[in-house]
Amino acid sequence: MATFTKVASLDDVPEGQGIGLEIGRKRIVLFNIEGELLAVEATCAQHGAPLERGVIHEGNLQCPWHGAATPGGVGRAAATGRGPGSPAA
Ligand code: FES
Question: pTM here?
């Protein structure tokens, strides 16, 4: 059964930028894309680039090393500060 842990509020993540977070032994990055949070693993699956240095381009997260794009819908949290029950609110 999935459990949810509040790790940040929308106000903690500047628009168009990401912040790195440690949750237990896992490192993630939260991006604020036009008021919605995108949560991804902190390292790129291709060759391990630090994705908190990635950029948002046309709604997709682009890897800082080789430019692979993660579609904005993948890993996007349902939260936009709508309430404490939201996964990343
Ligand atoms: S390390 Fe991310 S695209 Fe190569």
Answer: 0.69
Query: How is the chain split into domains, by residue range?
Result: 12-70
Q: Nearest 5 degrees, angle CA 39-CA 85-CA 87?
A: 10
pLDDT tens, position by position, 38-73: 888 899 988 999 998 988 887 778 899 998 887 654
65 Cβ inside 6 Å of ligand 1: yes
**Nearest CA-CA partner of 36 in 89, 46, 6:** 89
Ligand 1, atom 1: nearest CA belongs to which residue?
47
Q: Is CATH 2.102.10.10 the classification given to domain 12-70?
A: yes
Nearest to 77 by CA among 38, 42, 34, 22: 38
